[in-house]
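Hey, I'm writing a tutorial for new members on how sequence and structure tokens pair up, and I'd like a real worked example in the thread rather than a made-up one. If someone can provide the structure for the chain below, I'll link this post from the tutorial.
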Amino acid sequence: MDTIKQPNLDTKMIRTHALLHMAKSIHSIRGAKSQGIEYAEPHIDLAAIKQKLDTLESQYYVENITRISTPNNVINTLETNIKKADIAINKCIWHYDEAIALPFIPTNLAVIGSGIDAIEIATIYQALGASVDILITGDDVFPELDKDINKTFQRYVKRLFKIKPQAEITAFNFTDKQVQLSATSKNKTLPDSIYDAVFIAGDRAPHNNGLTQPFMASSFPTVTWLGWTEKQLDISGLNYKAITIPWRSLGRANTDINTNGLTKLIFNTDDHTLIGGGCMGNNADEIFGEICLAIRNQFTADNIAHTVHAHPTLHESILLGCEVYKGTATDVLN
């Protein structure tokens, strides 16, 4: 008997990252205006995009579907306020599969929850033209990561999304092909809002507590991390020092209009090995491999500082972080 071939998690990721690449291209076009180059606003051909995505996905079919269920950080009161039957029949309520299928481009989209799924879907639909609100239970869109990274990221994207922290859904009603949400944020009642779609986030790949699973949100900007975070180290008893290098100190970031990024490195001060690190900024994923390699091989700050880093590149932020840790940096105050 023939086996029905269906896409697994990997094929869905291919679809998601193709959409994120489109979003990045749109941002690049819009960002060129600040450099004196103007293009017309992109024309979004939804049917053509979906056909391209279907073609990509069909190339990666597998014999059996793999279903991964992970804990998520959605606002708990939401699911209890929506009947399962309503979710099944109402096209306004999206989970991950529905969102990446691109059923339509909403004028207003609510993203409920935090983490990689929430931010990547918000990034995709904002680039395609939606106005996006993100409602999170706490203060951080990436609860796994340290406060400084979250603060910088959220300051970076405030022109793209409206993030409502410490949020709770108090009412959820269907109108004519739309959803009306009543919510509070920081214990203050928000004005009722009507959305064409509501995305309920469930994080596919949470940061691994075993410190071996890379964290990467391919948003705009990208956020990456591997290894120990400060919040984990503060309760571990290990001796450490964290170094943060703002990208505004890099020539490459300044020419790319990419100065809001940062590179953060955490060293074990007993043996000077790199035990945690990551980057936040456009193209952060392109330099993340060096951090992963250094942590995997237990490189010291000295090992990394004696490695050639081409100029001008974003990679120099890793070199500079090691030199600051060692106290040998010549272009910053120690």
